[in-house]
Amino acid sequence: VRESAVDNGEWLLQSRFSLFLRGDTLLSARLADADWAGVLTAFVGEPVAWRQVLPFAPHLVRYDTRMLLLSEEAFLADPERLLAKRTDELLADNGAQLRALYAAFWATRRDVVWEAADSRVAENVLISIANRCFSDAALRRVSAACPLPRPRAANEFEPLRPDEWL
Distance (Å, rounded) from C-alpha 166 to C-alpha 162? Predict the structure, then answer.
């Protein structure tokens, strides 16, 4: 088992993309491993599936800007054609889309990686728990007493100011 984990890590470090398929769950390490290794994720699935497999809600982490999103139907019909098409799109205009994808990935990495500098994973965990455990009315009362930081933009590179902390 150790050798396969090492082999997988070596493959990740040599990769540009890691496929994240339906069937992977929150317990799967595929997304965390790819984020930790600095590898972009190619998410195969429709946006409605995000809630089932991604660790945080889209208002906390802009998954739509930090992942290569691939239609599951198109992927299953002809994966090579779809991947070639998306690669051509990413490399068009001297790789402008690919650079934008990497910029968004690095800007939001601290939202999903514990080991990242200025990690916001603990904050995201607490916000997610509050959103799942409390009623809307209770959340409105808490929010009025202690407002949450503004939603994060994909191009936000600066850490939150102390007055924006939870």
Answer: 9
Residue entry with tokens 């409390």: 134
SS3 assignment, position 68? strand
| Dist. CA 21–CA 85, nearest whole Å | 19
Q: Which of 127, 122, 99 is nearest to 112 (CA)?
A: 122
Over the stretch 105-139, which tens digit does the pLDDT of each residue have?
A: 888 888 888 887 788 888 888 888 877 777 777 76
C-alpha dist (Å) from residue 21 to 50, 55, 101, 142, 151: 11, 15, 19, 37, 27
Instruction: DSSP for 123-144, please give it.
Output: HHHHHHHHHHHS-HHHHHHHHH
Sheet holding 17-20, edge to edge: 17-20, 40-44, 67-70
